[in-house]
Amino acid sequence: xKKFAILMLLALELAVCGCASNTLNNFNTNTASTAQWExxxxxxxxxxxxxxxxxxxxxxxxxxxxxxxxxxxxxxxxINAGACFANGVxxxxxxGNATFSTNTGTGQVTGQLNLTVTSVTPAGNVLALTSYQGxxxxxxxxxxxxxxxxxxxxxVGTWQLTSSGNIDGCTGSGTFVMxxxxxxxxxx
Length: 188
What we know:
Elements: H1 2-26, E1 30-33, E2 36-43, E3 52-56, E4 59-60, E5 67-68, E6 76-78, E7 92-102, E8 108-119, E9 126-140, E10 147-162, E11 172-179
Parallel strand pairs: 1-10
Antiparallel strand pairs: 1-4, 2-3, 2-11, 3-6, 5-7, 7-8, 8-9, 9-10, 10-11
């Protein structure tokens, strides 16, 4: 009877420990990004080739759903816009979203990010960046009770530029890499 009681106590302990570890895995670390990102596009020809721009946006994951990027009116600035995009206030509009999560144990961030930039001057050129599944990576210093900051963020994927038809050469496609830190950013 004594052995049976000890076995029952061990079984109960394993059951309790098993439940506790499963519960911990369900918690998600919240992560936010407010940093400036640099995007380098590879591919395309003519004015649609080798575009580079800076993007500033705020985003915070909620662990499960797609969340919009909060992009200020001056959040996109082309370094080499050329004929397809002008720089300055009110010459671009941008929208995007992200889905990402942070591993509680390692701080590793993975997910997906999409960004669309539309030119106002010249009117109607649309640049769409779509990351690969799992194409957003980085690290977070958050915990299950505090929101962490995304660092070493990198997004890789494909881009597509379409034109309203008023500028020759403003169509194309290729791959891109977008990084929080220029030192970590290299062509895909």
